[in-house]
Give the backbone structure.
Amino acid sequence: MRHLALLLSTLTLFGCATKPPVAATATAQRNPCTNGILALYFKEEAALRPPVSMEWPARAMEECPGAAFKVVGLPEPSAANLQGRRAESVALALRAFGIPQPAFELGEPADQARPVLEVVARPDH
């Protein structure tokens, strides 16, 4: 019985060690110079909920001249209310990846319910 448990734990570890994370594979294959959106999720308070990966926007900033960024569904960053603090956490996360302060657009109630980061990596398209 002990050998069976050891075998199963070894197989489990081997299987986990050889599989690449799904999110890493998906972001590594994305062309950074494509326009798109990145959904933003938050904890109950203001902090962004991991794993919000800023890899694609950061690569767009580095590799795509003229790339622009806009947060839709949140107001300008401030400490005045929950939405403002969430906007601050997005701005801080972007700044940590070398992305300057994006534009913020509060939008309609549906936008506010599901904020996104719009990445316009090819402004001419």
About this structure: The beta strands are 36-39, 68-72, 103-105, 116-120. The mean pLDDT is 77. DSSP finds five helices and four strands in the chain. The longest strand covers residues 68-72.
